[in-house]
Design brief:
The protein is mainly alpha-helical. Helices cover 72% and strands 0% of the residues. The two termini are 16 Å apart.
Amino acid sequence: MPAIPLVLAYLVGALPFGYLIGRLRGVNLFEAGSGNIGATNAARVLGRRFGVLVFVLDFLKGAAPVAVAVPLAE
């Protein structure tokens, strides 16, 4: 079933890590700072450490499905 990996990759990519980390810290990033849930706004509002965490998680949610799919495609 080739659709299953596509659906899983979509679901991983749809995870809003900035929003989730912000909410865990008690902040709604949609309402704080620039209103963006990305790493830059997370760093401004939550601090550099959490901004880096959001960046790394956002990077991995794009890289991990590709790293899994490429060997499967060969």
